[in-house]
Structure prediction request, 193 residues.
Amino acid sequence: MVKSFSHLILATALTGGVMTAAVAAPVTYTVDPTHSAARFSYSHLGLSTQTSRFNTTSGTIVFDAQAKTGQVDVTIDTRSVNTGINVFNDHIQGKDFLDTATYPTATFKSTKINFEGDKPTTVDGDLTIKGITKPVTLKLIHFTAIDHPMNKKPVLGADALVRIKRSEFNAGKYAPATSDEVTLTLSVEALAQ
Prediction:
């Protein structure tokens, strides 16, 4: 009887271990500000494509590969805009464009991560610029989830893009001469907490 009871406890423990392994918990990752950036590009008078960036990006990503779910919450400090020219930095921060004195951040908050097979391919969510929120879909052009080769912690890496019309965010001055369509690119590395 004691032997049978011991076998029952062992079987229960093993089964519980298998069930725990099968139900993986979501992992929360913190965006690494030193290896993450948001960029934007647009046509300038049909002459050239101008590309600039925001130097400060932060946020969190919750990801569960097994359940194929997750959540993305990213904040971009619009005051950190870097065109490479100080006069243009001030120009883009002005009221006609980002109005960073009133709206110092832009945010993206996901509503759904879409998968094809085992990999996420798009992220639906709400983009807020100048206090105006619009639904957008980020297309993932690159995604990886590995153990970081240096600190051995789980890490996510992704490049995503979306095209928006800046006039829809009350930032449309000089459109269409300077294109209304802007391509936003978000490159992120995020480490498990």
Observations:
- Residues 31 and 47 are 35 Å apart (CA to CA).
